[in-house]
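Sanity check

After download, print the first record. It should look like this:
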Amino acid sequence: MIDLHVHSVFSDGELIPSEIIRRCAEKKYEGVAITDHADLSNIYHILSSLNKLKDFRDDYEIPMLIGVEITHVPPKLIGKAVELAWKEGAEIVIVHGETIVEPVKEGTNYYAVNEEIDVLAHPGLIDIETAEIAKSNGVYLEITTRKGHCLTNGHVAKIAKEVGCDIVINNDAHSPSDFVSRELAEKILRGAGIEDVERVFENSRKILRKRLK
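Expected structure tokens:
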């Protein structure tokens, strides 16, 4: 299990980065990405803080990436936010998709997958056209273990299979209890109708290896 979607105290999470990494290591995770909620007002603040870990990460137990989750940004401004995140040193950029349990602006999914991002998080009732663009641009769709957001996992899995878009599974963790075991993650994937669970885990490994080069 590699969790590429975790929130720390630098947005609305409960844990500092070191505790996130320790807890993930204790659960035998292979890696983790800290991706705090960000918009054009706080990208610099988040990344300037997280960037300080880069010089010390070799002493941590598991590989880590630092990044952001672009969240509730007006769709036409997502590109600017993504560009700024990469400029400020992000190693992974994901976008908060159109989950059905939050008032995410319609069009967020579409604009997000047209940008240089790694993952479209909890994309809700994503449509075929948007998923096809995600596939063309190498954007992964997220299956999530998080309460509420997970309600559309089955739809996301179905659409991803139909268009051949790759997926990852993440916790969208905000608190210690959000980090699930690999065994539970496998069950969540199978519950969404995904049989090749090892391929899903390998997708996360690919992102981790790519971004750590």
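If your output differs, re-run the checksum step. Summary of this record's structure: The two ends are 20 Å apart (CA to CA).
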